[in-house]
Design a protein that fits this description.
By secondary structure, this protein is an alpha+beta fold. It has one domain. It contains six helices and six strands; from the N terminus they run ααβαβαββββαα. A hairpin with a 3-residue loop joins strand 3 and strand 4.
Length: 180
């Protein structure tokens, strides 16, 4: 069994290395059973203006956003997801915050241009679920750093999901429920 697990992990590493971008990670998992994901098209970015003032101050000038939530994360799947995300963050990102615990991995990885962050990956993976955000724009490093706190990360996730959900026409996606 250990050989099989090692073989699967090595295969995932090679597979993920070919697509070392968040878009590749997103595309690999958006169709997973139980996945919730969204990618905000340009014409809808203005609709996200209904996010709370606290969230707006953290995310700043947003140009691109992608979100994915994976549920039913077994220990093997958790390790595969973390390995894939590590391949992404190793491709030109700087870890602003990383916490690897037995039951939880939290990562804030960024690309910077001078004193401004231009790309941010926010990732949290525990025994139940994995949540990842990709934000592109111009961000204040100190405000992004506050997302290393679990409560702040969870509040941002919920606020962005609720804002996105409230701006989608119910006729397009009546079953979308950010709480599931």
């Amino acid at each position: 069994m250990k050989k099989f697990t090692l073989l699967v992990t090595i295969c995932m590493m090679f597979f993920s290395c070919g697509k070392a971008s968040f878009q590749g990670f997103y595309n690999n998992h958006k169709t997973d059973l139980g996945a919730t994901s969204f990618q905000v098209p340009n014409f809808m970015k203005a609709l996200l203006s209904s996010v709370s003032p606290e969230t707006k101050s953290v995310i700043g000038n947003l140009q691109d956003i992608k979100y994915i939530k994976l549920i039913s994360v077994s220990s093997l799947r958790r390790q595969q997801i973390i390995t894939e995300l590590n391949a992404v963050t190793n491709a030109g990102y700087l870890d602003m915050f990383r916490q690897n615990q037995v039951n939880n991995t939290r990562i804030i990885s960024v690309k910077e241009n001078g004193n401004v962050l231009t790309d941010v990956i926010l990732f949290n993976c525990d025994e139940k679920e994995a949540i990842a955000f990709y934000l592109q724009g111009r961000f204040d490093p100190e405000k992004i750093k506050t997302l290393s706190e679990a409560k702040t990360f969870d509040a941002l996730s919920l606020d962005l999901l609720q804002s996105y959900n409230s701006n989608i026409s119910p006729g397009l996606n009546p079953s979308f429920n950010p709480n599931h």
